[in-house]
């Protein structure tokens, strides 16, 4: 697999972190890359395809000039494009139409593409997911399936089942800490599914109190907290993962809407590094 790796704890050097697209939503991709670099992120995630019902603000795939600018920014800053979102499997959509998006992700050096499933027909979704994995494999990419309570694939167990049925070696799970808890999942579920199935983590925090179905989307896209600021069992989640699992920070906060991408990225990076430092200190403190 083409997966980048990090070390979560126990190393003298800080593990590289990724800046997920939604932490600086709407930012120009070059601005996002530069914000990631200025804040200390080694990896960045970009949006090449908008989720269903959402407008794509910067079309990197269709705009050759923008694509060149993104490539130049990655080269100039040394930041690596890690993940690309948000490919969607939906009824009436043929994933072969996403070939150019997958090829562009590969050309820009991505490790994986992220996908969500909106098709309630499980057999059809499995076939389309397998076809997408084949497209990605031809470009040297992994495919990370993200589960969400309001999607057709709602839980980590359902995600693992679909991946098993597809039977593709480059298929992984994107573990969003908020979605795990809001879908009724626990760190024990992560352990049962198996660390080898988790491609990477979208790290954030939140209160334990569930906002209800009506509030889920608003919370996911603008109501998250930085790691360590909420009540999610983040330590137990990370303990269930392989030490080399990539961590990206996905913490969109509506309160930061007036801040620049660089400011938002800096706040996210500093809060996450502080959380990881506390976690490491606690784990290696004398008994």
Structure write-up:
The protein is of the alpha/beta class and 287 residues long. The protein has a single domain, classed as TIM Barrel, CATH 3.20.20.150. 39% of the residues lie in helices and 15% in strands. It has helices at 29-39, 64-77, 99-107, 122-138, 156-166, 177-182, 187-193, 216-222, 234-239, 261-283; strands at 18-19, 43-47, 80-89, 112-117, 142-146, 171-176, 198-203, 246-249. The protein has an eight-stranded parallel barrel, surrounded by five helices. Strand 5, helix 5 and strand 6 (171-176) form a beta-alpha-beta unit. The radius of gyration is 18 Å and the shape is globular. The chain starts with 17 loop residues before the first strand and ends with a helix.
- Count the domains: 1
Shape: globular
**CATH fold-level label:** TIM Barrel
The class by helix and strand makeup works out as alpha/beta
Unreliable runs: 1-13
Number of DSSP strand runs = 8
Mean of residue pLDDT?
94
| CATH domain class | Alpha Beta
- CA gyration radius, whole angstroms: 18 Å
Give a short account of the largest sheet: 8 strands, parallel, barrel
Widest sheet: strand order?
A: 1-2-3-4-5-6-7-8
Head-to-tail CA distance between termini = 38 Å
How big a fraction of the residues is strand? 15-25%
Order of helices and strands: EHEHEHEHEHEHHEHHEH
Number of helices: 10
């Amino acid at each position: 697999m083409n997966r980048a790796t990090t070390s979560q704890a126990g190393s003298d050097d800080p593990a590289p972190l990724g800046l997920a697209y939604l932490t600086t939503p709407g930012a120009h991709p070059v601005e996002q890359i530069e914000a990631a670099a200025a804040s200390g992120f080694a990896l960045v995630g970009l949006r090449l395809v908008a989720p269903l019902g959402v407008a794509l603000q910067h079309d990197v795939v269709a705009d050759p000039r923008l694509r060149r600018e993104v490539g130049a920014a990655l080269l100039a800053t040394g930041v690596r494009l890690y993940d690309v979102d948000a490919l969607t499997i939906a009824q009436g959509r043929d994933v072969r139409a996403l070939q150019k998006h997958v090829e562009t992700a590969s050309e820009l050096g991505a490790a994986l593409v992220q996908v969500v499933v909106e098709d309630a027909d499980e057999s059809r979704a499995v076939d389309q997911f397998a076809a997408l994995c084949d497209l990605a494999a031809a470009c040297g990419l992994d495919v990370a399936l993200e589960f969400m309570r309001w999607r057709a694939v709602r839980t980590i167990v359902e995600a693992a089942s679909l991946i098993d049925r597809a039977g593709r070696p480059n298929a992984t799970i994107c573990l969003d800490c908020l979605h795990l808890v809001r879908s009724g999942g626990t760190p024990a579920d992560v352990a049962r599914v198996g660390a080898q199935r988790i491609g990477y983590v979208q790290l954030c925090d939140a209160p334990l109190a569930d906002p209800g179905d009506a509030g889920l989307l608003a919370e996911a896209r603008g109501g998250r907290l930085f790691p360590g600021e909420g009540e999610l069992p983040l330590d137990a989640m990370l303990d269930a993962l392989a030490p080399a699992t990539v961590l990206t920070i996905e913490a969109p906060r509506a309160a930061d809407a007036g801040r620049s991408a660089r400011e938002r990225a800096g706040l996210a990076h500093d809060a996450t590094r502080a959380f990881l430092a506390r976690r490491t200190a606690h784990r290696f403190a004398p008994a």
